[in-house]
Here is the input.
Amino acid sequence: MGKTIKLISGDGEMFEVEEAVAFQSNIIKSLADEDNADDCIPLPRVDSQILSKVLEFCRKHANSPSVHTKFAAIPSELCPKHDGSAAGASSSESSSAHSETCRACYDAVMKLVQWDLEFVKVDLDLIHHLLKAANYLDIEDLMFMAVEGAANAIRGNNPEEIRKLFDLENDFTPEEEKEILKEYSWLDDPFEP
Amino acid sequence: MRVCRAAGEEVTAGAEEAEAEAACPIQLLPQDALHNVLGRLPLHQALACRPVSRLFLDALSSPPFLSSLPSLRLLALRHPRAASAPHPSLHAFDPDLRRWLRLPLSFLPFPSASPVTASPSLLYLWVDTAAPFPPAADASAKSQTKSLVVCNPLSGSYRLLPPLGSAWSRHGTVIAGPGGSVVIVTELAALSYAPSPDRWLKFPLSLPSKPRSPIMMSGSVFALCDVGAPWRSQWKLFYCSLADLGRAHGWAPIERHEWGDVFDIFKRPRLLAGAGGRQLLMIGGLRSSFVLDAPCSTVLILRLDLDTMEWDEAGRMPLEMYRCFGGGFSSPLEVVAAAAAGANNKVKVFGGDGKVWFSGKRVRGKLAMWEEGAGKSDGGLWSWVDGIPGYPEVILSGSYALDPVKFVEGEPALLSQ
Here is the structure.
């Protein structure tokens, strides 16, 4: 185990994780960079249940390119074929030439995305907490996937179902609701000229 | 992503309590989280969420959200009856979802509006603006003024351009330019308008003959002129940048020796803008021979790359399709028989931005469509578009985004083209 970071959740539980895992969070990374005599970072706004889920995500992403990385920019050190060691990479290939044609890299990243999509197939309550934690800790990929999870919950549902899912009240008057529905009704109008 | 609070900051007990009282988790999320979620949905789905609650409505109506939406690329018809009362609307086709939409035009406070052209993001219409003066004794004193209105049919914002005599609306070809500019071309003169100085400027047209099929692309007007004899057309391509319209030699021919007789193979060629703004499409009947009245073998689309100044063949209408339009005779007997039957096999060509549509009197209820394919030299994709109301006069191609386009006097903030 390389250098580790100690994180303290809001309810006092301690998590010790590798730097590569914890540094998925830009906030933790910048706090750890500061001179801390003891590397214990308190995270009062994240409770242990959520933090453990967040760290599960971070562990999976620790040595992978971000979902935002274009395939052409995946560094060859991260290629599964080369086993993470730069020495294994062919010296005659530039790293961009490597990733664009490297099937192993492409498959690995797509597999990760599939894992992520399963990870966010959870109830909305948990998604909310993940969204908040991802925002608070500034973990870009978790934010991206949590947003995707929330969008998936909305897709294909009508307003009433969406209200139930998000635990929202219909705070419109019937007249207001009618006006709103009218405004863009032409988008849904099955128009057969 | 905005971060609300850095870890380690002290949180007061009061704030924690207030949070616990909030109705539901989603209201505690930062505003852009909800924007991000809604932005991940397809347009129709996102808009369908407006009636969920005020929280969703506000998120969906906010300018940052609206301006992040991708544009809706639509093909709009200039349908003779659609734009007038009781429900003035624009019939538009969404080529991606392959379905028809009816965009309401009721936000325009004019008795009748006639769509005439579209830029990549704005729709232009002719409207009557003559104020109903008390009836004059002398009927001929009644002045007929028409004005162009430029609008965004999705956001409902519009702007009235300075009025013009009705002759311009009857005889001129309206061409939409970048940044809300307009050019109207007739045989002898051109009018040009730009939001600043917000007036029409008139220029004589120094072309050898009446311009055919004028279009605007990359800030210049392109047109074909017939420089041949009355019994034999000879087409030549001309262009003039917007800035040079008024100059004596603003119009210049575009020709290259290597082109040979590229124009002579066409019957009734038409120009359209190709995709990307640097390619010109020339479409017309492909002459089967140089005999004057020889029928055309099909419709040909050639593409001129303005950077390399080279022509290549973009597409050729499949024969089965061309036959539907009344063409593609395979024997002189068929030609004679068709002529005797009074066949009208004229093909009307419309489009822009790399898509071309064809309509014909013999093809009711549908249009043929050509789109550029993935590969440059693969001949493009030909298909039929069904469900066309009646016989469309003109097709305007546009791409409309939902962001609120604000027209402020003298300083319109228009969608970028």
